[in-house]
Amino acid sequence: MRTQWVLAFGLSVLGSIAPAQQVAGANLKNAGIVPGKSGGTYTLPLGDSPQTFNYFGAIDNNNYTILNNVLESLVQYNLATYKLEPGLAESWTTSKDGKVWTFNLRKGVKWHDGKTFDADDVVFTYNNIILNPGVRANQIPNLTFGGEPIKVEKVDQYTVRMTLKQAAGAFLQPLRIFIFPQHVFAAINPLKNPDKFMQMWGTDEASSVVGTGPFKLSSYVSGQKVTLTRNPNYWKVDTKGTKLPYLDRLEYLVIRDPQAQVAQFLAGNIDEININGAQFPDLKQKEISGAPFKIQRSKALFGSPPHLAFNFDAKDPQLAKVFRDLRFRQAIQSALNRPRIISDIYNTVAVLPGHGVSPISEFYVNTRNQLGRYDLKAAAAKLDAMGLKDTDRDGIRNIAPGKNLEFDLLYGTDSTIYPAVTTILQNDLKSIGVKANPKGILVSNLLSTGMSGNFEAMILAFGDQPDPQLRREIWQPGQALHYWHLSTRKADGTLNTVTMFPWEKRIHDIFEQGATTIDPIKRRALYGEWQMLFAKNLPVIMIAKADNLAAVSNKVGNFIYNLGPIPTYNTNTFIYMK
Amino acid sequence: MLNFTIRRILGMIPTLLLISVVCFTVIQMQPGSFVDQYLDDPRVTKETVANITRQLGLDQPLWVQYLTWMKGIVTQGDFGFSFASGRPVSSLIWERLGWTVFLALLTLLVSWAIAVPLGIYTALNRYSKRSAALNFFGYVSLATPDFLVALLLIALVLKWGGSNVGGLFSPQFIDAPWSAAKVLDLMNHLWIPMIAIGLEGVAGLMRQMRASMLDVTGQDYVRTARAKGLAERQVMWKHAVRNAVNPLISLAGLSLPSLISGTIIASIVLNLPTIGPFLYDSLLNKDQYVAMTLLLFSALLLLIGNLLSDLALAWADPRVRFE
Asked: Alpha-carbon distance A550 to A561, whole Å?
């Protein structure tokens, strides 16, 4: 056995502090975290009413945003580096073959109702809830390795062992899932009665929710407001020994309309909002003219960069042949005016995209050279070289005599980004003799249309994640969401290698290997190779990556960024009111 | 009169049954179902989707789903449960009903209180400049969507440095117990939705009242009343207005269903905790029991509204009573 994680900041625990307490924030100085003062109320907007307060009862971002403050998991994100740090697990070891993980739990942690947290809670949560197929938001897909879900067993009161059928490189990532109190749920037996389990902690039972997190759920006024109060027994203290969290109250106002959120922020009823590039100029101007808030911009690890995809399996065989030709996709990339999109549509609040990972990810390799420059002449020359010429002199190139190089371009109408990108692209393509016919549908229908295979070209976005393994369903050929080349997957879900290009085969193998490799250096090399293959062969053409933008009241201290529903990325623990 | 009321109430039952079938059919005709959202979610396995489908009863034939739903309503007053939150539909509607009824009745009252006098005034002073101005105002407010007025008011309040931009309370009062300060805060927020939502109603009602009033003032009995030597005041209020207001009473009954569906967009823009956005969400998510119950409820309100307006009409108009 070798120790994977030795507590970096656990050493600073002082004698004067009770054993359960843990100094936090020392490694966050670079992110701007300083000791704050206790007290105050911090108010945030919530995009809609939460459907339930049972984390596993619904897949609902509003529910997740709230519970991120209330519940905790074995591991949690470092707010500055996004590396996984000890949470409810104080340390862990892993066997040489990477299949057996042993977690030492933090001692002295109390649930909000005063009961003690221990291994029984962890084992119960995994075996009865997280790995329960009857529970709506179960995590079986994320915790299945080598075709079998993990085994979770209690070793002693503060030790838990997890056994995997196959070693997994990104195993800690899915362990960010929250732990539930056994003493609350054991009586209803979730394995037998998943329906009854999911009805518990509904929106009318806010005050009965029990977690170990920095805040307690205190009340919910339907459709209006969720109130959380400080957990006085929380196990983290800051570098000065002050108990965390600093805030007395954390409030979420339910405001559905983004413009109404901005209005409430400007009126001073909300202390922070996340904004987008379209809202940026107006608010920035107000900031410069002395409004009592700051616009904070940060590089995004999460967030969804849009891409342009051509259907390799387009219904029209001649069109599919063109789309499969790398020279065509290279030509389109040269005609994609990224600088203009970043300056005009994102109002400069975006950067050149990575390929499948964010440019600030630890896995990122520099693929910028592969993006090329915006060059319509080069694009036209590429298409000429393919033999796609305008034979009938109507201004549009021909695939075959009498048949124009023309395709439908699907985009989402209810977005501030997609329609404008589509217009810019359409005009540039027109000037090199390619006709794109924009077709707008609702953003929420884009992916299902893609998955039906019934499209020619599409602008779509997938969220970036800290570990490429988590996005395997999208980027690995033959996986469920590889929508631009569905024929890499047979009807029974198995791989169809016949239709794959050699580089697609290699990408497939990289993901297979990456899934079972534990050595972080080898994993990084593998995923680096994938990104280069991606950037050179353009399965899809990445467009741009937006930065994070937040408008923060000057009353707020220690603001980093608010990721809302991303589990265990909880910045509210450190927020204080000046 | 009692006989008439009972007959009308009994008559509602077959109508409601028919409407429930129509509601169910309409919801089922929507393409897709609630579980579709999970199909292309990598976090959800096929097995889980099958489990959810079974738990929600969506694997049953349609007629079984309908009969189970109806049986629950008739035998236990159980309107089914929300697919999204797992809670009973009736409790979800109940917790939103208070503010919805409050806001709807208040706007109705406000728009009546403004519209009826204005309608009478513009009818009596048909050619005055003030009437022309009021008519113009009526046309403009009729043509302006309520959410646009709401946005304009919010922008104005922000410009004046106010903080009452949307919602019914300031954040600190939302979960506070009732007090004088809370009522004051409510008043401070309430005028925006009153103007935004009420204004549209005012214009319509005012035009209606004006037309009706013009009709009545030309009638023989008004001339007779004048010829009898009654004071102009009495002629107007006892003979003209009382007759002219009848069509408006029928109209009021018809506006009861707008409790639910009337102000969806304005409610979202103004951030009001009413049923409208709830209905909108349930339709988008295909949360079928919530949507069906709300549609059924809105049909019931229409029937009740009709009954109430008929009763009110009978009270206000002896001719209806004697028939």
From this structure: 7
